[in-house]
Design goal:
By secondary structure, this protein is of the alpha+beta class. It is 46% helix and 19% strand. The protein folds into 2 domains: 95 residues, GIY-YIG endonuclease (3-Layer(aba) Sandwich); 30 residues. Strands 2-1-3 form a 3-stranded antiparallel beta sheet. The relative contact order is 0.17.
Length: 126
Amino acid sequence: MQINNFTKTYSVYSIRDNTNQNIYIGSTQNLTSRINTHISSFKSNNSSCSSVKVLKNDNFTIDVLICDLDKQDAKHSELNFINAYGNKCVNNNKPMIITLKEYQQLYNKRYRDANKKITVIDSYCN
């Protein structure tokens, strides 16, 4: 099924611990669902997300920082907000701003380059 004139948009949001001002930054296409996931995972003690660090005092504020972005712009904006908040930001992970294919190509190139250097050193030593 195709819906005319519909574009998926993303938002960048924050969850701030009001007791210590620490902040979690995230991006999502469905904010309500994502926030509900953060909270329900925290309450069930079943979360590996670093958002638990700002939810644990049960005194938090949720804000939309920017909205109506495409996926790539949302990831870039999320990363910029994480970096801007510095050590107040509790995120353990940063968003990947390149595609998986680009990452694999970069990884493979670095791997090949590292092995070339090793080969050259081994040849020189013998």
